[in-house]
Amino acid sequence: MTRSLDEWLQWQERLHPQAIDLGLDRVRAVAARLGLPDAQPVTLTIAGTNGKGSSAHLAALIYREAGYRVGLYTSPHLLRYNERVRIDGQVADDAALCRAFEAIEAQRGDIRLTYFEFGTLAALWLFREAAVDVQVLEVGLGGRLDAVNLVNADAALITSIGIDHTDWLGPNRDSIAREKAGIFRPERPAIVAEPEPPPALTEVASACGARLQRLGVDFGFEPRPAGFDWWSAQGRLSELPSPGLSGLAQLRNAAGVLAAVEALQRRCAVPEDRLRRALPQLRLPGRCERRGRFLLDVAHNEQAAQVLAEALRQPGLPGPRVLVLGMLADKPHAAFLAALAGGFDSLVLVGLPRPRGLDAATLAERIGRQDGVRCCDNMPAALTAARELAGDDGSIIVSGSFLTVAAAAPLIHDAGSC
């Protein structure tokens, strides 16, 4: 029976009893049946609590500018599943994804795969079909046991280490770092763009024989009025243009990507002028994205909230400022809001779908703020309330989850309406 993409995705969600089932045995077995491990293109694998998505998009953009055929796999998607798989900057169409899923199903046998494992195998299958020169793979959760890690990366990049997904990755930065460092490989570059890496990163790199390169030690960056300088043991690139995404965190992400590109230079040479052309082109929906008086950001943990707070301290977002916030149940709600203190004037809470999301009233209890807070059941009502509070001249910030931004984005049509 021929399935549509939506039918495939709904079926995948029901196939495995758990949404997350970390481990590589099942996905490796199916990958072997598909012949996927036999000949992988040059692979950059990226993990991190925050920044891995924008880093993956920048790396793919750089290699495309240098003339390579590039496969990019990221997650989660914002509006359409197809966004997860891109070849030369173009999202995979429904037919291609369905073709990949059919190939996987033909080889799966009685092995139960999760939704994410199906997607990972589909991306690798399509990249092989397209004969890409380079593939950039974003880890979904952690690293060591993530499906993406079935590929032996030619270079691994860790963007940041923060507290998130503690049920799966452990209770502290050291345990989380150990899981993320599972993408390191012997004798291959292991790039760490986290400015304060936990000891576990160094320990894992040493134990497996990876070639560790650390921000501030082996490479680094210096902000400039019109961009930034980047340096490594190989030399210095001066007055590079800023990435299209603003903020100090994006300079740090770019520094890590440039270190990874340099580490792979012998395999995939990238001229300096192509780097310079690629950097300012970076655009990514939902990452401090401005739409007129709206700012959309998918921040959903405390570390990401701190990055958003930095963006809110910059000029250009007039008051009064209204924060529209919706969050999943397993996030640090009070700490997230505390990190944004002073960045907004009014708060509108919006419910997200269960079982993962919180309704607005429960979110108000979790953050310990109920007086003066508007609680709305859905995004249309939340944006209506936000417009009333912001008036004609104010700004509206939408954040807290990919789901929050995904609900708002289609309702924001132009510079000032919703």
Brief synopsis:
This protein has 418 residues and is of the alpha/beta class.
Number of helices: 15
The CATH first-level class of the largest domain comes to: Alpha Beta
Q: Give the name of the CATH superfamily of the largest domain.
A: Mur-like, catalytic domain
Query: Which CATH architecture of the largest domain?
Result: 3-Layer(aba) Sandwich
Which parts are unreliable, with pLDDT below 50 for 5 consecutive residues or more?
A: 414-418
Please indicate the percent range of residues in DSSP E strands (runs of 2 or more).
15-25%
Number of structurally distinct domains: 2
Spatial separation of the terminal alpha carbons: 41 Å
CATH topology of the largest domain: UDP-N-acetylmuramoyl-L-alanine:D-glutamate ligase
Could you give the count of β-strands? Answer: 17
Rounded average pLDDT = 93
The main sheet comes to: 8 strands, mixed
SSE-based structural type: alpha/beta
Helix content: 25-40%
- Overall geometry: globular
* Major beta sheet, strand line-up: 4-3-2-5-1-6-7-8
Radius of gyration: 21 Å
